[in-house]
Structure formats: C-alpha cells, structure tokens
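Hi all, long-time lurker, first post. I run a small reading group and we've been trying to get comfortable going from sequence to structure in the token notation. Rather than ask abstract questions, I figured I'd post a concrete chain and ask someone more experienced to write out its structure so we can walk through it together at our next meeting. Sequence below, copied exactly:
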Amino acid sequence: MLMDDVAYANRLRHAHPAEKAGFAMLCLLASLVARTPIVPVLTALTTSLAALSLARVPPRAWMKLNLLPVGFLLVGGLPLALEFGSACGPWSIRLTESSWVRVSPASLRLTVQVTARSLGCTMAMLFLAATTPLTDLIQLLRKAKVPGIVLEMLTITYRSLFILLETSEQMQRAQASRLGYSGFRASLRSLTLMVTRLFGHSLERSNLAWQAMLSRGYGEVLRVLPPEYHLSKGRALMGAGAGLTLLALACFLPGGW
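-- Answer (accepted) --
Happy to help. Here is the structure in token form:
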C-alpha cells in the first residue's frame, strides 16, 4: 500500500507520534469549527506544506494519496448546489410543468462551506496517516487509555486489509501469466473469477493468520515492544503554534465569503 510505504519512509517517521497527532488534531478542530471556507483551505495548504517540506513526502506520492479522497469530495459536493422546487430563478432548469432545479447563492455558499470543511479535515488526517505508521498510532492510543478491544479490532482489520490486497495481487498475477487479460472478454472473465474467489481465499488466509496468533500465545492483548521516541520541543512548539493559529482564525474570522 502506498500509504504504508510513505508512512515508513518519510522524514518524520521517527518523530514522536504525539507531535504529529497533536498538530493534526488541532488542524482537524480548526476545520470543524470554522465559519468561513478560508480556514479549511489554509489548513489543507498548511498540512500539505508540512508533508512536503518537513516530512519530505514525494510530491507525486502525496498527489496520489490525495487524488481519490479530494476527487470524491469535489464530486460529492456538487449535488449540494442543486435545489428542487416550484419557483424558478436566474440559474434554473425546468424539469416538468411545476418543478424546477436551480442553483442559488445560498446553495453555492453551502457547497463551498461543506466541501472546504471536509477538505481541511481530510488533509489533516492524511497528513497523520502519511507520516505515522499504524503501529505507532496504536501505541499512542494505548497510552491514551483507549479500550483494548478497540485497538485489537483496529490491528486485526489493518492486517486483514493487507491480506486482501496481497491475495488479489497474487490472483491477478497468476491470471496474467496465463493470458487472462489478453482481450476485453478475457479480462472481464478473469476479473469476474477473481472477485468471486477473492473473499474465500482471503477468509482462508485470515483464518491461518488467526491460528498463527493463537499458536504464539495470543490471549486478550497483542503485546509488542514499543519503540522509544524522544519528544522534540522545537517541533512540538512549531506544530502547536501552527495549529493554534489556525484554530484562532477559525474562532474569530466571521462567516461568509
């Protein structure tokens, strides 16, 4: 997975997880409470700048990580701009004798506000995910007294995703070696076979992983040796300053655009 590769290879990999989590949470909170779309956009730019300059995430990898969620937000925000009713307006299309679909200034403001807020929150979480491996996040959550059952489910789900992806890659590679994707009809048939068999193979491998955990003495808690991190006061102050600045702007800037 690209996200996992970036999380282990970036420059902030060995930074204390609390530094990155604190900065990301402040950016997330600033985007949530902002009354103007300016603050979430500033949040997205700040987190992108931190990922590219401080963490040294490759620009192409950062763009790939953002392509799907940002594209989903932009496409998903378009229906918010549409209003259905019986009254027409300057930007309206007649559907039937008594119904119109229109775009009003109020609906445009709502679309921009919701999309910008979602963008800021998404970029804050992407920064945290791209700079911090899940194992570090789990250790941080364990220190924050998150219930153990939640962490165990998170760990097992994370492992199951990798099993699913690895199984699909192996099946696709095996089909390609047998010319399973030599044409459109062959590709469609191979894809159908892979989808129908993927769940069964993944479930079987997940069961083998579970048996391996039990054979190694798994009880109620997955115990691992946590790495030692040293808190950098400079980085912590810089992240807290940037996050608090965005939060202050979110609280004091008036709404509207």
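A couple of things your group might point at:
The mean pLDDT is 84.
The beta strands are 83-85, 92-94, 100-102.
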